[in-house]
Amino acid sequence: MTQQRVPTHEDFSKVFRALADDTRRQVLAALVNHELSVLEVAERMRDRASVSVVSRHLAVLRDAGIVQEEPGTDGRYLYKMQHACKYEIERAFGALLALWKR
Fold first, then answer.
1. 92: how many CB neighbours lie within 10 A of its CB?
2. Is 43 exposed, middle or buried, given 0-12, 13-18 or 19+ CB atoms closer than 10 A?
3. Using an 8 Å Cβ cutoff, are 21 and 64 in contact?
4. Helix (H) / strand (E) containing 45
5. Which of 33, 35, 70, 82 is least surrounded, with the fewest CB atoms within 10 Å of its CB?
6. pLDDT in tens, 31-41
7. Model pTM score
8. How far is residue 73 from each of residues 27, 33, 90, 102, measured CA to CA in Å?
């Protein structure tokens, strides 16, 4: 049986940074139950962010493991929520909340 490493606060810093931004949370809301290109995410946000801004936010979310990027059929990349990261997000917030119990 493989022993799981205890996560540190540094492990969660990318997740916290990624979720701290309101625009990134709006990008995530657009991706709920959808696989979308950068252009499609920007269109769903109705002029609240340009395609280049959405692209930068998606890169942060991808680097934090919150979204996944896959090649689409038309040459564009599609982004979708990485549902497996839900556990990591719960662990990150659980670790933070544990600080108050000390």
1. 21
2. middle
3. no
4. none
5. 33
6. 988 999 999 99
7. 0.79
8. 22, 19, 33, 51
